[in-house]
Amino acid sequence: MSSSAALQLPWRATPPRFRLVLVLTAALWLITLALALGPLGVDSPPVNEVLSAPGFWIVVALVLLADCYPWLPSMRDVRGELRFVWSAPLSLGAIVAFGAPAVLLPAVSGLLTSLARGTAPWWRSSINAMCFGLIGSISLLLVELAREWTTPQPTADPLHVTVVGLLVAVVALGVNGSVLAVASATLGRSTVAASWRQTRRALRIWGISLVAVPLVATLAVAAPWAGLPVVIVIAALNQLSRTMLRSTAAARTDPLTRLANRVTLTRRLATRISAVDVSGSGSGGTRVYLLLIDLDGFKSVNDTHGHLLGDAVLRRVADRLRSAVPAGDLVARYGGDEFAVVPGPGSTASIAVETAERIQRALAEPLRLGGQTITVGASIGLAATADPRTDVLELVEMADRDLYRVKKSVALVERRLPVVDDEPEGGPFAPVWSTAAQGAITAPATGWPGVHWSITAASPDPSTLRVTP
């Protein structure tokens, strides 16, 4: 199971070790919160004083604005792609400035951030809330320790505010990255180190915004009303993010089908191939698969019904492809009536074949468009590589050759692909059985070190298409 697919699991289907990580995170949050509010919280400003300060409520309002802005209708198409957490420096700055009364603000912010971006299922929002809450309680511990050990008080001295604020930012990055890395490792097949490397790349952009923590704390105490123009900044940054995300999506997406285009396909394949781990212990997987799909009889649709109906067929085919593949797979339009699917990390030979079977069953259903019933089949070429030095175009050419052979109804296709997934008896390089294009079983194939298989819509029973010893 890939990490992307695991993130869509219901709570009961998550691994026990993942649930244990969440329980331990919640326990650690409560412990640090009790310490910050108990023995070390005596030096925080009085609650009544904080609640009467305009700077506190201005920061709270800015946090809510930053987290809820993606709910605007104009942000609907990009809210799931937003990566900046504009409320993070605001909520942490409030802790530096006001201490204990602001300690729950990061947890509320984490929950709202996840909900506003449409994160599902519910436990993913819980991860955000607990992770941000833990960051808030640890940050409060640092602030309270600074109040005890330094004179003058941190909020009264700009240098102390800067030092404490930057320390809080560093701790926030470390805690967030560690929790997410451990949680990701318990969901997928990656190690903690590999998950941390992926999380660390995502935190670089987020970390830039945390540099503003000392500035937020200083303004909240010394010049609270100066924070109101931040409303304009939040709105402008979100609109800028929306424009950039839309431009990026347009450059990576096929305008007709809204699938990934060829540029995105080749870039993703290059990344996946370079991440192949020949030792089998990393998150990149031991093999990359590519399914190349060509529609059968599509030219006659254009010739008989016209290109407008042909475009509608392509859009409907794209919808069926999205529904037929797992959430972590990449679906792309390669060009014309050719499509491609790249199974997600951790996929095996059997998973790739099962995906191809689902695609064939989905595309075999007649399409009803414009009062017409259109039937298009699909031929699928399949290629794989376990070598991180493989060129993307070489892998595409392998799939294309297999697709050409399928089109020509070649009964058996031999390919030098090491059989390392679903290893048959006799070792990783033992020959395997193959299926003919018409569904007949052939003899064991010869050649080094294994064989490749072909799948075609001409097969009377796609469920029989299996790779078995």
Write up what this structure looks like.
The protein has helices at 3-6, 16-37, 47-51, 54-68, 87-98, 105-116, 122-149, 158-187, 192-210, 213-222, 230-252, 262-274, 298-305, 307-324, 349-364, 392-407; strands at residues 288-296, 330-335, 338-342, 367-369, 372-374, 377-385, 455-456. The chain has 469 residues and is α+β, with helices and mostly antiparallel strands. The protein folds into 2 domains: 3-252, no CATH class; 262-464, 2-Layer Sandwich (Alpha-Beta Plaits), CATH 3.30.70.270. The chain has a 5-stranded antiparallel β-sheet, sandwiched between helices. Strands 4-5 form a two-stranded antiparallel ribbon. Helix 4 (54-68) runs antiparallel to helix 5 (87-98), helix 5 (87-98) runs antiparallel to helix 6 (105-116) and helix 14 runs antiparallel to helix 15 (349-364). The longest helix has 30 residues, at 158-187.
Portion of residues in beta strands equals 5-15%
Given helix and strand content, the structural type is alpha+beta
Instruction: Please count the helical segments.
Output: 16
Q: Runs with pLDDT <50, length 5+?
A: 1-6, 410-469
Gap between N and C termini: 23 Å
Alpha carbon gyration radius: 27 Å
Average pLDDT figure: 75
Largest sheet: 5 strands, antiparallel
Shape: elongated
Multimeric status of the protein: single chain
Q: How many domains make up the coordinates?
A: 2
- Strand element count: 7
- Which sequence of SSEs, written as H and E, runs from N to C? HHHHHHHHHHHHEHHEEHEEEHE
What fraction, in percent, of the residue positions are helical? 40-55%
Query: Largest sheet, order of strands side by side?
Result: 2-3-1-6-7
